[in-house]
Design brief:
The complex is a heterodimer of chains A (about 290) and B (about 350). With about 290 residues, chain A is an alpha/beta fold. In chain A, the strands form three sheets. Chain A has a six-stranded mixed sheet, sandwiched between helices. In chain A, strands 2-1-4-5 form a four-stranded antiparallel sheet, covered by helices on one side. The longest helix of chain A is centred in the middle third of the chain and has 16 residues. Chain A starts with a strand and ends in a 6-residue tail after the last helix. By secondary structure, chain B is mainly alpha-helical. Helices cover about 65% and strands about 5% of the residues of chain B. The chains are: A alpha/beta (about 290), B mainly alpha (about 350). At the A-B interface, helix 2 and helix 3 of A face helix 1 and helix 7 of B.
Amino acid sequence: MDYILQVHNLYKYYPGVKAVDDVSFAIPYGICFGLLGPNGAGKTTTIEVIEGIQKPDRGTILYKGKPRDQHFKQEVGIQLQHTELQQYLTVKEILLTFRNLYARRAPLDELVSLCYLEEIQDRDNRKISGGQKQRLLLAIALANDPELLFLDEPTTGLDPQARRHVWDIVQSIKKKGKTVILTTHYMEEAQTLCDVVAIMDRGKIIAMDSPVNLLNEHCRGVTIALPSSIDENILHQMNCEWHKVNNTIEIYTEKPHDCLSLLIDNNVDITGMVVRSQNLEDLFLKLTGTQLRA
Amino acid sequence: MLYRIWTIFIARTKEFYRDRTAFGWNVIFPLLIIIGFSVVFRSESSPLLKVGIVASDGSGKDNTKNTQFEEFMKLKYIDFIVFQSKDKAIDSLQKFKVDMVLDTQHNTYFINDSSPNGYIAEKLLKGAGSNHTFFSRYSFKGQGIRYVEWLFPGILGMNAMFNSLYGVGYVLVMYRKNGILKRFSVAPVRPFEFLTAQILSRMFVMLATTIIVYIGTFLLYGFQCKGSLLTLLLVFALGGFCMISLGLLIASRSDSQEFADGLINIITWPMMFLSEVWFSLEGARPWVQKISQLLPLTPIVESARMVMNEGASLFDIRYHVLYLVAISGIFLLAGSVLFRWDRK
């Protein structure tokens, strides 16, 4: 298989912290690859080392089968996690400024239309909303019509509608056959957008596959969430995995019928109980014992 | 490469001139200083000494008709201030507001022993009325320059200094802090290209404001540049380049605006006072004069004054120019080597 990006045994240390600890993966052309994990898991450091912003302590990074060279910056698009832009410039001027830095340039009208910037293109970039700014940053990342696009937590802090807009744009980019690498701590985002997800925790990749395969492999059952407190002896009788999450007890089981019978037989108050199929958030909790959004 | 430099140049220049407060301040600030100082020093014969005269109390006793007093009152460059009471006059003397007090009713004068001007005033009073002289007097008729004409090159040099250090040094630190530099670093832009665009943009802005201030001051005061205007422009271009290079060095790594602000203050304040912007260091201690000669603002101000006030040519100011070129090169090289896109 042809890979657009290969990462082998990547390490990056900060004083007292292994930010990236022996990370390896390979990304085929045309997929959306997600790095999923909580804050501090090492997602941004991994992506910044690949982008060239930080130097690795060890490891190999191959772009199109070769070490990255001067063409790398020309061919990839990058959206950073936190970026301010030059003040007093309009949305269009900012977009043109960055677009003009590249040898290959995406058509301006296409960029504006793809990222829904038509109505704000003549507005001072300081006077646009958070969602509009994310779309502008996305348009800047697409200014060179990149083959490989890096998106570092593109929807963090956005409201649901603004997040949905960004997802639509990423779906459109995927349809064009571009390769996308995104980091996120939203499991819904990873499940919606990513073909392959690598779950990171404490600098390591702890699971990697398509969301469907990951869930099939690790989470075939359902999650029963109980808002009330429950006697731990009953939980032990169930003989299944459970965690306290905030003020609820979450029980993971492949035999919901047996669990529910046991709860009813023990007169447990099941008011407010939720039974749902498992997702990547449950998987993360199962693998690490901690919450994804912690 | 040129297209990338041009793109960043345009973006930075637009950012500057759309910031009305920064643009206005860069043009209005030097004009205000020149107007202010020219008002304060508007008289061609500003008094050198101030002498308080205690007014007559109406008792009829008046000794102002003596020769010594009349001759003393005729002296130029002395401001005579009348006080209604002796107490008020003495109070002003003790607070150094006047250099001497004359009480003509009682034929007394008062001086403050701590005041050097008082000493001079006393000697002048004692010498007044005596026509006897041992020396022959000669004088020169030179075309003197007004204080505003002496001050103007200094103000322009100072403006170039602030304009460059804050316009490049401070802005780059802010860019780094806000992640703007990091964003540029992942685009195919080399540090050399980015910094060149910043230098050119600031040079353009600095020279444009210098020209605006020059024209404004010329229209207000009607003075002229005795040397070549092109040479003067070259002095300010080179001076601006030197200060911008110093700004790049200051901004090469830090992401703290407070630190950059402090550093710029540490650099600019000594230059303000030791580079003869406001007053001449003639007569200052030799070590002060030596330090002054090393400061980048000194050759800018000195050579601008030589061109404007004395009509010096480029050849006449060659040592200043060479020194500016040399230290600009050092600042630029050090700033480029130390430069980091990101704060890490």
